[in-house]
Specification:
With about 450 residues, the chain is mainly alpha-helical. About 50% of the residues lie in helices and about 5% in strands. The protein is built from 18 helices and seven strands. A three-stranded antiparallel sheet has the order 1-7-6. A two-stranded antiparallel sheet has the order 2-5. β3 and β4 form a beta hairpin. α6 packs antiparallel against α12, α6 packs antiparallel against α13 and α8 crosses α10. The radius of gyration is 23 Å and the shape is globular. The protein binds protoporphyrin IX containing FE. The site of protoporphyrin IX containing FE has 24 residues, from α3, α12, α13 and α17. It comes from Riccia sorocarpa.
């Protein structure tokens, strides 16, 4: 799709522009995006073109290339050693979250909101990996736990996920009529204050040679310089920490909420998954991360959830220089949308593409780490999600523990076929209406209780 401002050079040359509807004056094609841009662009592609256009032409950048972030993530923050050192933390936090939900359901409340349960659980795992809060000073500890901190993070996530017209129309950005940038600055100032105190707290501990050997803030503070002698500034550290929080919380919780919604909508799939769990792990001990490779049906459920509900259905990229795709000229600084949603539902790639049918992945092995373009929930190429190892593990393991330890059902009176599956478009695409579910114990009580008394 083509909107505003074609470069002079390209106006003159004899190029083939990607096809698209005629844009509006000043607004270009923005009105065509609508409330669910991934669906609308997919429909547009189906109706208007016989090819598979994925292009949105626009004249300025969303983000700079951040190859260095990926390197720091993969080679320094999420090393195999750190991954395994947090294994106990992950299990404790998941069981703590599940236990809490069961207590609520057994204690008179009829059901729980799964977005809140899973969101808190994911946030606790990520913040413990980042901050190792057990070893923070009382002040920093109290601060991290305050509703204010959680609220600030929520605000950052909401604003980062909002549709900001200035991203698409350069002149809009200058005037900021919605006051969006003002709000953004205010919330980032709050985040910055919190983070500064956490960094100071870690630095103090470091100087006093006490504790905090293990967490990610510590890893950032003690990171040696790059080959060119560049040390990370505190602003860069805060940015990376925010990346971990933004990338590592709602993505996981939302994927699991979608998976549970599909399982509760089709109880025979839920039963089959729990039967696999019982035959591989049983009910005498809790499922471990090391059991995951032996649970192929669970894997298939996760892959099918990634396919049908990619949390980032539109990947936003920019062309750094003029290039050509399928014979079309793409000028430098063009905003490119890769419509993962449309790819994952392409009838030429998948039979019955709109149906949740995990069995399709039992015999068809696809790589979710960006090698197979038919399934790319984490993107692909240089901008692929740097936290995908942790993301995949968390989704599989949280789901495994939920399936093993809980009898899951919809609240009384809600029929599976009536469960709505509406989406809400934003930075990620969660359910529009939170999933409400009843969680009752499915394993002996001591298995759950023993793991939260730590
Ligand atoms: C189910 C879990 C997850 C999914 C589905 C997911 C998906 C994605 C996708 C699709 C992208 C954009 C790729 C692109 O632009 O082509 C992305 C970027 C990113 N993800 Fe994830 N992610 C998940 C978990 C995580 C976790 C656990 C972390 C961190 C601990 C993380 C950190 C990031 C960061 C920092 C980026 C931005 C990279 C950049 O700007 O170059 N993600 N993720």
């Amino acid at each position: 799709m083509i909107s505003l401002s074609k470069k002079k050079k390209l106006w003159k040359s004899n190029v083939r522009w990607p096809p698209g509807p005629r844009g509006w004056p000043l607004l270009g094609c923005i009105p065509f995006l609508g409330a669910c841009p991934h669906r609308n662009l997919a429909d547009l592609a189906k109706n208007c073109y016989d090819e598979n256009p994925v292009l949105w032409r626009q004249g300025h950048w969303l983000r700079q290339v951040r190859g260095c972030v990926a390197k720091i993530f993969l080679m320094e923050l999420f090393t195999a050693k750190r991954f395994s050192s947090f294994q106990v933390t992950r299990k404790q936090e998941i069981i703590r979250g599940i236990n809490g939900a069961i207590e609520i359901c057994c204690g008179g409340a009829k059901c729980v909101r799964m977005d809140l349960i899973l969101g808190k659980l994911a946030m606790n795992i990520v913040t413990r990996m980042l901050l190792n809060e057990g070893k923070l000073s009382d002040e920093a500890n109290a601060m991290k736990d305050t509703d204010d901190f959680q609220q600030t993070l929520k605000e950052v996530m909401t604003l980062a996920g909002s549709f900001y017209t200035g991203d698409f129309i350069p002149w809009w950005d200058k005037f900021d009529p919605q006051g969006f940038k003002k709000q953004m600055h205010a919330v980032f100032r709050k985040y910055d204050t919190f983070m500064q105190r956490i960094l100071d707290d870690h630095k103090m501990k470091l100087e006093a040679a006490q504790g905090t050997r293990d967490d990610i803030v510590y890893a950032l503070l003690t990171r040696p310089s790059d080959v060119d002698g560049h040390y990370l500034s505190e602003a860069e550290m805060k940015g990376i920490i925010l990346d971990v929080i933004l990338g590592g919380t709602d993505t996981n919780s939302s994927t699991i909420e979608w998976a549970l919604s599909e399982l509760l909508k089709q109880p025979h799939i839920l039963e089959k998954a729990q039967a696999e769990m019982d035959s591989v792990v049983g009910k005498e001990r809790l499922v471990e991360e090391s059991d995951l490779p032996n649970l192929p049906y669970l894997h298939a459920i996760v892959e099918e959830t990634f396919r049908l509900h990619p949390v980032a259905p539109l990947l936003m990229h920019s062309s750094m220089e003029d290039c050509e795709i399928q014979g079309y000229r793409i000028p430098a600084n063009t905003r490119l949308f890769v419509n993962v949603y449309a790819i994952h539902r392409d009838p030429e790639v998948y039979d019955r593409p709109s149906e949740f049918y995990p069995d399709r992945f039992l015999h068809r092995k696809l790589d979710v780490h960006g090698k197979d373009f038919a399934l790319m929930p984490f993107g692909s190429g240089r901008r692929i999600c740097p936290g995908r190892g942790l993301g995949l593990l968390l989704v599989q393991y949280i789901l495994a523990l939920l399936l093993q330890t809980c009898n899951l059902s919809l609240p009384a009176g809600v029929k599976p076929q009536e469960l709505d599956m509406e989406e809400k478009f934003g930075l990620i695409v969660p359910r529009r209406n939170a999933l409400k579910a009843v969680l009752l114990p499915r394993v002996p009580k001591h298995l759950l209780v023993d793991h939260v008394s730590f």
